[in-house]
């Protein structure tokens, strides 16, 4: 039996019903992830451009666009267990350029920026309240990294009661293998993995 047959037999990989009130959540397209001069970053220009197509369209239609960034207070750096495992992340300190959203994303002054301390954009943050307050039923998750903060955000989005869509060309990682594996896992268990053209067409239909 093939891998796909095993998943099919177990009841995974079914398509999710799309709602009527979407939001775009852009995970951690901050300079610490997008500017290759920093050790924690990689070239994410392609996924940023694809994501911007979605955020521009959503914003024009009055749909919420929310960005996230990781930012640590210097006093937290020596105390958080995650930073003992992923030591490079300790450079993402409050007030530094590394935690600012990359201007190439097209972020606007009215777009909320959720500051987080861990992988999931939901954990210990205001994201769920922002989405619920806006009446959102479907979350389109984009950003970086696919295998880390995107995947964690997707899992928590489903667990928070939202339908999840993930355009693969709007996600970036430091290596191809974890990117591909995470998208496969997301598509089997948590949300529909699609692309930016599909999301754009869907948004236009809602508009």
Automatic annotation (TrEMBL):
PANTHER family: ISOCHORISMATASE HYDROLASE (PTHR43540:SF1), PEROXYUREIDOACRYLATE/UREIDOACRYLATE AMIDOHYDROLASE-RELATED (PTHR43540). Residues 23-198 form the Isochorismatase-like domain. It comes from Paracoccus nototheniae. Keywords: Hydrolase. This is Isochorismatase family protein. SUPFAM superfamilies: Isochorismatase-like hydrolases. Pfam families: Isochorismatase. It comes from the Bacteria.
